[in-house]
Amino acid sequence: MDSNKTVLVVSAHAADFVWRAGGTIALYSERGYRVRILCLSFGERGESERLWRQPGMTLESVKASRRAESEKAAAILGAEIRFFDTGDYPLRPAEETVHEMVLEFRNLQPEFVLTHSFADPYNFDHPEAANLTLRTRVYAQAAGYPAEGKKLGVPPVFMFEPHQPEQCEFKPQVLLDITPVFDIKRKAMESMEAQEHLWDYYTDLAKRRGTQAVRNSGRKEIKFAEAYQRVYPQVASELS
Ligand SMILES: [Zn+2]
Prior knowledge:
There is one protein chain. With 240 residues, the protein is an alpha/beta fold. 40% of the residues lie in helices and 14% in strands. It is built from seven helices and seven strands, in the order βαβααβαβαββααβ. The chain is globular and about 60 Å long. Bound molecules: zinc ion (ZN). Zinc ion is lined by residues 12-13, 16, 43, 47, 123, 126.
């Protein structure tokens, strides 16, 4: 257990972090890390189809429902979550949000950062969230940027797997074994009731990535994995 270490996750919408990084979040939370999720939008327009089919739905009630689901999922995964409500379709972060994110980086000093891929022709909010994350990470590193707190070091950034990886130019470079915590991820996925059609999809994906992890490591005990792509090069003294 090392409670001084932290992880920062930036999610465009209310459920993205659950499907794409839920296992990683649960794993690091179990290891004693403080995991903090910044959720930029509730996904109230683009990723809440099922709720909009119910009669009498309003934008506010969809947002409240997605927020409640998201809070529940974060609690199951052992993470804390902050919502920015920057809109959905389009997600448009205000300058105030940019500044707040710089403060988050400086306060948290994360060991690593998880966010979306640079491209996603199915949802332009995802690259927007990735760009915002990388931009504010760089601002937080700049001594001259006018925000309180110690300037940020160089936490690596990992892009989580998009829903349609090939179209998003996503290449899995890291396969993280999430076998010990997969049950927790499944439980968190099941709290996202507006998107029930994705529960089995992301369970199957974790199994496939698990099979690939075995093929690439020889570690037969791996059953489930999550894939990531690095933004910056890994620096090492040994090739392994
Ligand atoms: Zn999304």
